[in-house]
């Protein structure tokens, strides 16, 4: 049997968690699926599934092979698209990763516009507050905030964000506005981390200054820390795009702006450069246009 057919059949069993479901997905008979998997296991000399009368489970070797199969088949699809020319309409599944809050606020609208423009595509949005390895985890496009690690991916800068300290006007009226980094020790602090201490790195008189603080409100999300500040509980430190609307509406006020460190750049990253598939190029072009026009990251 054709190797690519065997891989596709194997992945269908993994995705559908069974041979019958894979057969329905592929439009072939269950015995044909069973024969394909058996042939693949024979060629590899490894068991890809553990089968019982009720459950089909992928083995550790099968999980690793599934990751490799997805990568290989995606590369084949991209090669076909590249050979077909840049004018082919985007189609297929696209994986996009971004920081959680930024993704929800600014990448989701881009994804929706992209899907409306290109009806033969689908987008998997992976919004997490950790650095996703684009190659190992199969991401086509990544939005990065901060200095970039060494990477073979193409990166296009679309803006920058500041690290800002803010509080509600009511809190500042009651407790006073901090004028120096040292004054932060006198204030109530809310942070996005489950730690009894936190360190804010600032710039004072042209030199780095670290301020160690003991927060009273510790959360797992920036949203919750911002809600604490909006409620007048204390000061929090977040990225400027996260509170820009609250600042404009005067629900929050920025403090110690003259002590802020340099802004962090925002990049759109993608693999393959000019050889990128049309579905990737179309999303990247749209993302660059929309994010560069976004006042929250200028």
- Determine the fraction of residues in helical runs and give it as a percent range: 40-55%
Alpha-carbon Rg, integer: 25 Å
CATH superfamily of the largest domain: Periplasmic binding protein-like II
Domain count: the total is 3
Structural class from helices and strands? alpha/beta
Number of E strands? 14
**How large is the count of helical segments?**
9
| Helix-strand topology string | HHHEEHEHEEEEHEEEEHEHEEH
Uncertain segments: none
Main β-sheet, in a few words?
5 strands, mixed
Distance between the termini: 54 Å
* Sheet with most strands: strand arrangement: 4-3-5-14-6
CATH fold descriptor of the largest domain: D-Maltodextrin-Binding Protein, domain 2
CATH architecture of the largest domain: 3-Layer(aba) Sandwich
* Principal-axis shape: elongated
Query: Which CATH class of the largest domain applies here?
Result: Alpha Beta
What keyword list fits this structure?
single chain, about 300 residues, alpha/beta, Arc Repressor Mutant, subunit A, D-Maltodextrin-Binding Protein, domain 2, 3 domains, 5-stranded mixed sheet, 9 helices, 14 strands, about 25% strand, elongated
Secondary structure blueprint with pairings:
Layout: H1 3-16, H2 19-26, H3 30-44, E1 49-51, E2 56-58, H4 60-84, E3 92-98, H5 100-117, E4 121-127, E5 141-145, E6 154-161, E7 163-167, H6 169-175, E8 189-191, E9 198-204, E10 207-213, E11 217-218, H7 222-230, E12 235-239, H8 240-248, E13 253-255, E14 264-270, H9 278-292
Parallel strand pairs: 3-4, 3-5, 8-11, 8-12
Antiparallel strand pairs: 1-2, 5-14, 6-14, 7-12, 7-13, 9-10
Helix pairs in contact: 1-2, 1-3, 1-4, 2-3, 5-9
